[in-house]
Structures are given as C-alpha cells and as structure tokens.
Amino acid sequence: MPEIVAFNTIDAGIEPEAEKVQARATQAGPRGKKPRRALSGRNIMIYGTLIVMALYYLLPLYVMVMTSLKGMPEIRLGNIFAPPLEITFEPWVKAWSSACTGLNCDGLSRGFWNSVRITVPSTIVSIAIASINGYALANWRFKGADLFFTILIVGAFIPYQVMIYPIVIVLRELGVYGSLTGLIIVHTIFGMPILTLLFRNYFAGLPEELFKAARVDGAGFWTIYFRIMLPMSMPIFVVAMILQVTGIWNDFLFGVVFTRPEYYPMTVQLNNIVNSVQGVKEYNVNMAATILTGAVPLFVYFVSGRLFVRGIAAGAVKG
Amino acid sequence: MENVSVSVKDLSLSFGAVTVLDTLNLDIKDGEFLVLLGSSGCGKSTLLNCIAGLLDVSDGQIFIKNKNVTWEEPKDRGIGMVFQSYALYPQMSVEKNLSFGLQVAKVEKTEIDRRISRAAEILQIQPLLKRKPAELSGGQRQRVAIGRALVRDVDVFLFDEPLSNLDAKLRSELRVEIKRLHQSLKNTMIYVTHDQIEALTLADRIAVMKSGVIQQLADPMTIYNAPENLFVAGFIGSPSMNFFRGELQLRDGRAFVHANGVDFDVSAYPSRGPFKAGQKVVLGVRPEHVRVDEASSGEPSHQAVVDIEEPMGADNLLWLKLAGQSMSVRIAGQRRYKPRTAVTLSFDMAVASLFDAGNENRL
After folding, report:
1. Chain A residues near residue B132 by CB distance under 8 angstroms
2. Which tens digits make up the pLDDT trace of B298-357?
3. Cβ contacts of residue B199 below 8 Å, gap of 6+?
4. Does A216 contact chain B (CB < 8 Å)?
5. Are residues A212 and A70 part of one domain?
6. Which residue in chain B is spatially nearest to A317 when comparing CA positions?
7. Which of A263, A279, B183, B224 lies 20 to 30 A from B345 at CA?
8. Do A162 and A305 lie in a common domain?
9. Between B74, B85, B134, which is nearest A317 by CB?
10. Residue A55: helix, strand or coil by DSSP?
11. How many domains does chain A have?
C-alpha cells in the first residue's frame, strides 16, 4: 500500500503537464476514431442490393416450401405467396414413398438410394485418383509430365455431348452399359481433369522443401503421399468433395443416358414425377420432391462449408 | 585421398538450354566446414541439391566417403539436410519430426529414442519435443530442423541458407551455435549462404561462386585479403572494396597506377610477376586500409574531400571524393569529420589488390 501512495504523489506531480498535452490535442481538431453515419448513401446501396439479391433467391424457395405444405384444394385458390391455412405433410410422404414414375409407384426413395450408390463411390474413387495424379504431377516431375497434364486439361474443354455416343459404345464393349458401375466409371473419368488441376495446384503450392526434406528422410512416393502430403491437404480434399458430391448428385444427363430405369438417379426420377402427363398435376408433391432432391447438395454446402473454413484455418500452418 | 569426405568431379547440370553448373570440381576434406557463397542464382543451392541427390546431374560424378553416390537416392548418401524454410512436417510433433526418417528406415524403437534424446540434449530442445512446429519460434524451428539432420547419424551435413529466415539477433546467435556444433561433432558440413558475414565467420574454406563457376576456393582470410579476381574482391567486404581503374606506369624504379589523373604508388604491392608498363589495371583498396590524416612525412599521400559521414558506433565510415571518384574509408568511431572537410589519405599498398582490367585476375 505505501508504494501505491508514493506512486500517486509522483502521478500528481505530472498531472498539470498531462492536462496541457490534452488541451493541445483538443485544439488541433479531429481526434480518435472517425465517426461514421449508419444511414449513408453507401450503406443504403450495399444493404439494398444485398436484400434484393437475397429475396430474389429466397422467394422461389419460400414458394416451394409453402406449396409443399398445402393440400391441393388450397393450391387451387391460387395464393402462391400465402402460408398454408392447414399444414399437411402428406405431399412429402407421397413424394418420398408413393409418387408414380412411369410404371412403378414407389416414390423418390429408390432414386435417392441409387444416387447414393452412384455418388459415394464416384466421389471417393475420383478424388483418390485425382489427388495421386496431382501429387505426381506437382512433385515427381516425370518425363512427359507437361504433355500429360496438357492432355488432361484439354479434356476439360471438350463438350460432353461430343463424347456421349462413343462412351456408350465403350461401356457396351466393356459390358457395363446400363449398370451403376458404368455410370460410376463415367463420373470418375469426367471429374478427373478439374480435380487433377485442383490437386496439382494445391500440392505445387506447398513448400517444395518439405518434399525434399521427406526425401532426405528416406520416404518414398507413397510414404510422402500418405504421411506428409495427405495430412496437410484436408482443405483441398473438402473442396474436391463438395465439387464432386454436388456435381454428381445434380447430374441428369449421364444418369439418363448411361443407366436403365431401375438405376435412375434421383434427378431423373424427379423429372419423371414432375413431367408425368397422366392425372392431375400435384404441385405440392412436385415441390416436396424437388426439395427432397435438392436437400443433399444443400446439406453438403452447409456442413462442409463450415468444415472447409475450419480446414483452411487449421491448414494455415507455416512450415 | 582417405581424408576427402565429399568429392565433386566434373559436375554439370543444365535445365534444357540453361547450364547452371558447368564441369565443376570440388573436394571437401573430412570434418571441414565449407561455405558455398554467392548471390542468388549463382548455382550454389543447385550444387547443394546435387550433392544431396535431390537433383539429377547432367554429367559428372559425386563421391561421398569415397563411394560413388551419383545415382544414389538421398537417403542412401549419408547426408542430413537443413532447409531455409525449416521444412518441418506441420502435422507432426517435434518428436515425430525427428523420428520420421528413422521410422522410415525401420530403426529400432530404443535406438530412435536414444538418438532423439541425444539430439535434443545437444540442441537443448527437450522441453519442445511434444509441441507442433506451429507452436515454435523461428529459432526453435531451425533447431529442430538441425536436430532432424542430427538424428540421422550422418557423415555430411548440408545447410541450405538455414539462417536467412531469422531476424538479425537470432541469426547471429544460431551462427555461433552452428559453429559450436561443428566443433563438437567434427562432421563435414557444407553450408550455402549469400551472407558474407556467415561465410567468413563459419567457414574453414569458402567457395565463392558466380554463374555456376567457383571463382575462388580458399580460407576466409585469403578470400578477404587476397581475392583471386575482381568479382570476389567486390563481392566480399562491406562496404565494398574501393576500385580505381587506371594504367600501370614505371618511373624512377617505382610503380604507379595512374587513375583519374592521380598517381597511386604501388611499389609496395606484392605482385606475382613483374609490372608491365602501360598495362590496364584495377587497383582495389579496402576501406580499412586507407589512413586519414595520418601520413608520415615523405610517404605518398592524396588529397580528398569528405562527402558523407556514416558513424556506426565502433567505427566511422567516411565517403570521400578523390579526384572526382567516390570512395569509402573506415576509421575509428570517435574520429569525426564534417562534410566538405579536406583530408589527406595514405594507402596501405602492401595489403591492396591489383587486377588486370582485361581478364580481371589478380596480378
């Protein structure tokens, strides 16, 4: 305590000087944080645009959700923006389990499981191969690497339509045309250019000295890949996964061309439900089916978007 | 030959049309600390990478401990390497970083532990073993990187600008530690740097490199005092050596360099051959080999004017104008001069350097 008293006396001696400093600063005009108006023209522009854009994208979703929760009589009233007077989940149940597509009436569930059986292996296989491709291209500069890479990139620019018929023939010759295996092979191959580019660029951006250090430590191709590169590359694996899951899940063209009806993915089935011509148009079922089909990519965005950010933060370790 | 540790014979390396190293020869003695010194792009790191086996050579041979390792993998060469960016595996703890290479080589667990504890003791990183590289400071990271080379129990250590990423204070501390490490381990060390202070303080011998060619290979004092050519003379020393371009003249049994209308008496210069009158030469004098206002009577002296003074504490750097040419002189720190003061200079020609202006070699 005595020390503090002593300190105070010293402080008191300095005080007049401190006041003088303050007075001088106040005289000099603006000081400290610059005040900002909340309702400036700039803010109105920014938030106005943001709100309009958000409405533009959210309104259709709103209409879909509302319609899917209404019964057909209520829909016929025509108030598409009005919330349902009587909430019903029946359209959702019907869309999932008993809506008719062509001959069978077991809803979207079959398509959902088909899509899962297509997306999961395609994503895993394509990411596995592309990451190894990218790693080899970035770190093990083999003879002809540049040529190989160029060919792969050119592949990304060839329109799908050109390749569909030749691929049908190739799959037929391989005996996998119309099966899930055939479609998985097609998805894996078509994912290759962009994924390889993604992984190559990521691995090329990692410090080269890490790779050299691992080689001096005696690690070979696979040891470096699994023990050094893979643990450092989680963010890019998440990015690749998002790309592949959403891309393959949303695919319609390959699904309809390369499989038989019993293997149709969810998107194709959705189209068949919505575009069926017999009977009345069940808008509520169609809306529910559409939301169900879009739920998986939506879920992936929400979940892995956060993972992705965390991955980047965790990966931001300087060698 | 048995005391040669690393031997590079006629080594060439080219990337396409670009030749980085051209028939380079270098013998490094057992236990020697050799520094490869040069500005960026001179091929010094490339040479180190060739010795490490990280780059395939175009031609020539590399021997380590009298074993031809030209085609060997890095791990089979008996080398450990320390990189500028530390290159620690970010997802592994310090301990895992140290043991990774040993695990890959399938060394026994007890032996791994023994080597790690020895390296940790030498480098004083025991408290850091459980941490991740991200939780270490730059100096600690570099210590771990040295430890990773240490646990490999190798004959030759390769350092690729290991201190360049550290701040000045840490750099000088770790410099001393590396020197101490070399003195206690007595391994062969090859050290690449562009920092001449590091080179001069650490090296047993320095190889000064320029565009893939070793300009001079000698001990630090020889490099500093008797540079073999104009490039080495200008590269080593800070501030740089003062150069005067002129012509050799012989009069009355004395030799002069006539430059910018001034005659420098170089009779005291220990020339390798006889002076040839009329030869175009470059006279090089280090800033500390010029005395200011201390000429004894009868000694040849020159008049100059102080341009700028740079006091550095321990010594004082004067920038002068001598016959229109700018030059620098290092004097004791307490001696101060104001700009535009006229001074008398006397040159210590016995320790000066004289180069042929044509081929730039030492005379």
Report:
1. 317
2. 778 889 999 999 999 889 999 999 988 999 999 998 999 999 999 999 999 999 999 999
3. B35, B37, B191, B193, B206, B220
4. yes
5. no
6. B134
7. B224
8. yes
9. B134
10. helix
11. 2
* Domain assignment present for A225: yes
CB pairs A-B closer than 8 Å: 72
- CATH assignment at residue A246: 1.10.3720.10
* Structural domains of chain B sorted by starting position, each given as residue range(s) with its CATH number in brackets: 4-235 (3.40.50.300), 242-356 (2.40.50.140)
Q: Which of A207, A217, A228 sits opposite B85 (nearest CB)?
A: A207
pLDDT tens string A93-108: 988 888 877 667 788 8
A246-282 confidence digits (pLDDT tens): 999 999 999 999 998 889 999 998 998 888 767 778 8
Chain B residues close to A213, C-beta within 8 Å: 81, 83, 87-89, 148
| Angle at CA of residue B87, ends B81 and B93, nearest 5° | 110
Considering the domain architecture, whether residues A238 and A308 belong to the same structural domain is answered as yes
A56 in the same domain as A129: no
Which regions of chain A are under pLDDT 50?
1-14, 314-319
8 A C-beta contact, residue A252 and residue A267: yes
Cβ–Cβ gap B81/A212 under 8 Å: yes
Average per-residue pLDDT for chain A? 84
Q: ipTM value of the model?
A: 0.84
Q: At a CB cut-off of 8 Å and minimum separation 6, what does B350 contact?
A: B268, B269, B270
Partners of residue B150 in chain A, C-beta under 8 Å: none
Identify whether the C-beta of residue B158 lies closer than 8 Å to the C-beta of residue B52. Answer: yes
In a domain, A230, yes or no: yes
Q: What are phi and psi of A139, to 5 degrees?
A: -110, -30
**Amino acid A152: pLDDT:** 84
Chain B residues in contact with chain A using a Cβ-Cβ cutoff of 8 Å: 49, 52-54, 73-75, 79-81, 83-91, 100-101, 104-105, 132-134, 148, 152, 160
Q: What is the pTM of this model?
A: 0.80
In a domain, A93, yes or no: no
Give the DSSP per-residue string, B65-131. TTEE-TTS-GGGGTEEEE-TT----TTS-HHHHHHHHHHHTT--HHHHHHHHHHHHHHHT-GGGTTS
Distance of alpha carbon A86 from alpha carbon A77, whole angstroms: 13
| Domain membership of residue A261 as a residue range | 109-315
Q: What tokens appear for A181 in the block? A: 């295996």
- Decide if A204 is inside a domain: yes
**CB atoms near residue A70 (< 10 Å):** 24
CA distance A293 to A200: 32
Q: What three-state secondary structure class fits B190?
A: strand
